[in-house]
Design a protein that fits this description.
heterodimer, A: 414 residues, alpha/beta, Rossmann fold, 5-stranded parallel sheet, 4-stranded parallel sheet, 15 helices, 16 strands, 44% helix, globular, B: 309 residues, mainly alpha, two-stranded antiparallel sheet, 12 helices, 72% helix
């Protein structure tokens, strides 16, 4: 009996081992797009650079551990430049899936360049590692082929700013709110969310200006004058980095001082904004406090300090700024790495299962990775902060939600 | 709001006249479409960055530097590219392809050297040379610079006024060049009938090279003000600038550089009015204006027949 068992085991191993070795790919292909030029280059290149940094690290260690084959496998990055063009992006996402046959599909940064990938990935039954595309329409209960990696889905992202206006605003004297937003999936969704939070709350707040403008807008002088005429107590601007740069510069140039001004990228890409607007132009601006300033405890991957050091070593020329998007690219990479370490195959629905199994468990430098049932990121709600200028350096002061470390806001702006 | 939009439109529009006038001069003389026009504008912005960051000077000083450098670049480029183009069967069509390629090359090289991120110049730097002179002559505060300028009780960025004033100087320069110099007279002759000008012994190549150089020089001068007018500039900025320039040129009159001045102002006023009352639609304006003008008055607002069948 024992002899038969040993013979059967030996025969089984003789047949099975070569089969496993043959099935293991020589490389894991990660396909993605980036924008080296155009409107979204400044949010795309940091994300792409973060992903590349991780790939270089892993390949230097012999590859990434893949549980499906119980071995480390080198990563091959297949990346194309969509030049911030959605039509080009559509074609290239198709190419990554049908021609390059990538194992893992990663979207470009931002909702505008993620949008074409959502339907294409779903049609081809490819799981989409959505890095920073927060648009609400990307996520639905009947689409298992997507999950948001790094930033909160736009329907809940602006909750801290809305809650601050609702709960603290009236006491500060904030009664009239102006909302100016760029008409794209990302900021359009955030504007809708802010509007809804305020209206549903029943707080004594009146939205006196609510205007969408093209994302390509580069000049805000007329809009600033129009907003000023409505005498708002708070101005909420929801736009991409170039929009924030143009708005903040124009505000300084026409000498208008709004009592409260909120801008997204003053916090998310502070280095970039400071280069273009100057420290003085960012002082007292309300914004989301970025993970670069929060120093979340991690249970996987580098800490923020380690990552910043690795970034500065890899990209010493400073041509790509270190900010939220740089963190987002690396966060995506960590989710991919951890998913490959638990997925039992490279089947796309198994990747979905692996990614969702990390929800609430994975803690990276971007905070807790948490997904809702549709794949929207809900792990960390970015706190509301205000930028202070101390000794010539910009610092974030956390304002809302309230906790022991918070300070009172400077309102109205002096 | 209406008064503000109108004044802002005139200031912004005068700047757009400067953006488009070089493109129109080149088209008027050579009948070629310079699709890299916006990229030379972008390079002018980078000259301004250089003057501010490397030399620590007022970006206004970049105006003569950019003009001279790009006039020379234009003449050199003309000698390399255009004669071969003019010798082809369909120079107008081929010029579109050639200059599109040139645009891509300029954009790629600029990206390699300067990266992809937005770049700006502090508003207070523009005109600082005058502040320094004022403080030296009359005393006062050296920090008191870059503030807004008031018209009709409304505040406008000082940089807009400076850009509009420079545009007026540039338009006057083009007028004097075309109507008060011998080279300008010959240029107008070439613009009017290139073949007849050639037949009468005019050195069309020399005239065209000068026009091409001046066209690029004017684009670079407009570029110096781009960081102030558009908030920031990236190496990819040129494509949008070319589209807007083309709309302004067609609006004024294709082939008539001075028509561009009117085209720019009309474009600026329309843009500011749309931003004020229909802001979501503002970016459609160049295309809508192009369609309207081509349907209603194909020769432009100041147009005369410029094409010879």
């Amino acid at each position: 009996m024992l002899g038969r068992t040993i013979a059967a085991f030996t025969l089984g191993m003789t047949v099975a081992l070569p089969a496993i070795a043959a099935d293991a790919p020589t490389e894991i292909k990660i396909g993605t797009l980036y924008a080296s030029s155009g409107r979204y280059a400044s949010i795309s290149m940091p994300v792409h650079s973060g992903l590349k940094l991780w790939i270089e690290q892993k390949n230097a260690e012999g590859g990434v551990y893949v549980k499906a084959f119980d071995k480390k496998i080198p990563i091959k990055l297949v990346a194309y430049d969509d030049q911030s063009n959605t039509a080009t992006a559509s074609s290239l996402y198709n190419q990554l899936i049908t021609q390059d046959k990538v194992d893992i599909l990663v979207a470009d940064s931002g909702s505008v360049l993620t949008a074409p990938a959502v339907a294409i990935a779903r049609d081809h039954k490819m799981f989409l590692f959505n890095q920073t595309g927060t648009g609400a329409s990307f996520f639905s209960k009947d689409n298992p082929y997507i999950a948001l990696m790094a930033d909160p889905v736009s329907t809940i992202w602006p909750k801290p700013i809305a809650d601050f206006l609702i709960h603290d605003g009236p006491a500060l004297g904030i009664k009239k709110v102006a909302i100016l937003y760029s008409t794209n999936e990302f900021t359009g969704t955030q504007a809708t969310a802010v509007r809804k939070f305020i209206k549903d709350s029943g707080a004594p707040l009146e939205i006196v200006y609510d205007q969408g403008i093209p994302t390509e807008t580069t000049n805000y002088t007329v809009m600033i004058n129009n907003i000023r005429k409505t005498q708002p107590d708070a101005v909420i601007h929801l736009g991409y980095a170039p929009n924030d740069i143009a708005l903040l510069r124009n505000i300084g140039e026409v000498g208008v001082k709004f009592k409260m001004l909120f801008s997204i990228y003053a916090g998310l890409e502070t280095e970039l904004l400071e280069k273009n607007v100057g420290a003085k132009g960012l002082e007292h601006v309300f914004t989301y406090v970025p993970p670069t300033d929060l120093d979340y405890p991690v249970n996987f991957g580098m800490t923020m300090a380690q990552y910043r050091a690795a970034w500065n070593k890899t990209y010493p020329d400073g041509k790509v700024e270190f900010g939220f998007n740089a963190v987002a690219g690396y966060t995506t990479a960590l989710v991919i790495e951890k998913s490959l370490s638990v997925a039992t195959s490279l089947d796309q629905l198994e990747l979905h299962r692996a990614v969702f199994s990390l929800s609430g468990e994975l803690k990276t430098l971007d905070g807790t990775f948490g997904l809702d049932e549709m794949g929207g990121q809900i792990g960390e709600l970015t706190p509301l902060g205000q930028i202070a200028l101390k000794d010539g350096h910009l610092k974030f002061v956390e304002i809302y939600p309230h906790d022991a470390n918070n300070s009172k806001p400077v309102y109205p702006r002096p | 709001m209406l008064v503000y939009a109108l004044v802002a439109g005139v200031l912004f529009g005068l700047y757009f006249s400067l953006v488009g006038i070089g493109l129109n001069l080149v088209f008027g003389v050579m009948r070629i479409v310079n699709l890299a026009h916006g990229d030379f504008l972008m390079l002018g912005a980078f000259v301004a960055f250089g003057v501010v960051t490397l030399a620590g000077l007022d970006p206004l000083l970049a105006v003569p530097v950019a003009f001279v450098v790009f006039v020379l670049v234009g003449v050199a480029l003309y000698k390399i590219l255009v004669p071969r183009l003019q010798g082809s069967l369909n120079p107008e069509m081929l010029s579109i392809i050639l200059f599109f390629g040139l645009s891509q090359v300029i954009q790629a090289i600029t990206t390699i050297f300067f990266g992809t991120s937005e770049r700006s110049i502090p508003s207070s730097a523009l005109g600082s040379i005058f502040t320094t002179a004022r403080v030296k002559l009359f005393g006062g505060n050296a920090d008191d610079t870059g503030g807004p300028i008031e018209f009709f009780g409304q505040s406008f960025p000082a940089s807009w006024v400076t850009a509009a004033a420079t545009s007026l100087v540039a338009i006057a320069f083009v007028y004097l060049y075309l109507y008060r110099t011998r080279l300008g007279t010959l240029t107008r002759a070439v613009m009017s009938r290139r073949d007849e000008a050639l037949a009468t012994g005019i050195d069309v190549d020399r005239i065209s090279a000068a026009a091409f150089g001046i066209g690029l020089g004017l684009a670079a001068v407009a570029g110096v003000f781009a960081p102030f007018m558009f908030g920031s500039v990236t190496p990819a900025f040129g494509a949008d600038a070319t589209v807007t320039s083309f709309a302004v040129v067609v609006l004024g009159s294709l082939g008539n550089p001075l028509g561009t001045a009117l085209g720019g102002v009309v474009y600026g006023i329309c843009y500011m009015l749309v931003q004020t009352y229909l802001s979501s639609w503002a970016d459609l304006l160049p295309y809508v204006l192009l369609i309207f003008i081509l349907l209603l008055r194909p020769s432009g607002l100041l147009g005369r027949q410029v094409r010879v069948a």
